[in-house]
Amino acid sequence: MNNKDQVEIAAYNSKYQKSFKDLNIEWISNYFEVEPNDIKALDHAEEYIINKGGEIFSAVLNDEVLGVCALIKSDGKNYDYELAKMAVSPKTQGKGVGLLLAESAIKWASEKGASKIYLESNTKLTPAIKLYEKLGFKRITGISSAYNRVDIQMLLTLNS
């Protein structure tokens, strides 16, 4: 992948559903244990993410999905969307695909009037944490997580 300008960020399309699941299962099982909530969200992405006002983004190059991420609409007051299920193919990590995905998701949420985007991660994932900090996410505490692997929570406040 020489030119990241050729990578297209596509909104949800069911033809990318398998890649959304496979890329996530791959990275999660590589570092952690796949949990029941992962399977629920990955197997029923339309029901849990799209139909509830969220979006799933895929980074596509030559019909191959290089990375994915989701924005899950929040029903709480702490934030508007959760940036979740971000996964980039190991062969393209470090080449800006995650940044492209995150920037697209943030822009989309901003256009929908969001003021706060939340995410959960694990400090073992140093490149991911650095990416989130670069995008302006700040560490927060106090929101309960549905995942055992979460040891860091971050919030991005968008300028309205």
Fold and architecture overview:
The protein is α+β, with helices and mostly antiparallel strands and 160 residues long. It has a single domain, classed as Gcn5-related N-acetyltransferase (GNAT) (Aminopeptidase, 3-Layer(aba) Sandwich). It is 33% helix and 27% strand. The chain has 5 helices and 7 strands. It has helices at residues 17-31, 36-43, 45-50, 97-111, 126-134, and strands spanning 8-10, 55-61, 64-73, 81-88, 116-121, 138-140, 152-157. Strands 1-2-3-4-5-7-6 form a 7-stranded mixed β-sheet. Helix 4 (97-111) links the parallel strand 4 (81-88) and strand 5 (116-121). Helix 1 packs antiparallel against helix 2. The chain is globular, with a radius of gyration of 15 Å. The protein starts with 7 loop residues before the first strand and ends with a strand.
Search tags:
single chain, 160 residues, alpha+beta, Aminopeptidase, N-acetyltransferase activity, transferase, GNAT_dom, Acyl_CoA_acyltransferase, NAT_camello-type
CATH class: Alpha Beta
Give the termini separation: 35 Å
What is the oligomeric state here? Answer: single chain
Uncertain segments of ≥5 residues (pLDDT<50)? none
Number of domains: 1
Biggest beta-sheet profile: 7 strands, mixed
Say what the CATH topology is: Aminopeptidase
**Pattern of helices and strands:** EHHHEEEHEHEE
What is the alpha-carbon Rg in Å?
15 Å
Shape call: globular
Beta-strand percentage? 25-35%
CATH-defined architecture: 3-Layer(aba) Sandwich
What's the CATH superfamily, by name? Gcn5-related N-acetyltransferase (GNAT)
The count of DSSP E runs of length 2 or more, i.e. the number of strands, is 7
How many helical elements? 5
SSE-based structural type: alpha+beta
Mean pLDDT: 94
